[in-house]
UniProtKB/TrEMBL annotation:
The gene is soxR. Keywords: 2Fe-2S, DNA-binding, Iron, Iron-sulfur, Metal-binding, Transcription, Transcription regulation. This is Redox-sensitive transcriptional activator SoxR. PANTHER family: REDOX-CYCLING DRUG-SENSING TRANSCRIPTIONAL ACTIVATOR SOXR, REDOX-SENSITIVE TRANSCRIPTIONAL ACTIVATOR SOXR. PROSITE patterns: HTH_MERR_1 (PS00552), HTH_MERR_2 (PS50937). NCBIfam families: SoxR (TIGR01950).
Length: 143
């Protein structure tokens, strides 16, 4: 039984990812293709799921090295199942929760700083208490 393969253009159209991004993913070891006798790339249909996983992971801020590590744990001899994908994403849940807490703190600090009226995280008395040079005014350096 012959499996249907996708050209880079077809893969781009189906995945919503630019051909140049597909080539980048391939150089980074995230996806693979085979070459035809005319040296043209062909992607297995299963690569669509990998590309979707890469895109979702990038939107979550997961570094490419961690995405590569996760993808390398998937089986080569079959299409990944929903259990495979759930296992991979579960490992990142705590990291995401930690980042959400960190971002909420940043947001709350920013709101507090804007509330004081100075609009400067560097010289704000709320976020930078005891700043001796703040009395001389804002600026990146002391002249």
């Amino acid at each position: 039984m012959e499996t249907h393969e996708l050209t880079p253009g077809e893969m781009s159209l189906r995945s919503g990812v630019a051909v140049s991004a597909l080539h980048f993913y391939e150089r980074e070891g995230l996806i693979a293709s085979r070459r035809t006798s005319g040296n043209q790339r062909r992607y297995a249909r299963e690569t669509l799921r990998r590309v979707a996983f890469i895109r979702m992971s990038q939107r979550l801020g997961i570094p490419l090295a961690r995405i590569r590590e996760a993808l390398s744990s998937l089986p080569d001899d079959r299409v990944p199942t929903s259990k495979d994908w759930a296992r991979l994403s579960a490992g990142w849940r705590q990291d995401l929760d930690d980042r959400i807490v960190h971002l909420q703190r940043l947001r709350d600090n920013l709101t507090g700083c804007i509330g004081c009226g100075c609009l400067s995280l560097k010289t704000c008395q709320l976020t930078n208490p005891g700043d001796v040079l703040a009395e001389r005014g804002p600026g990146a350096s002391r002249l």
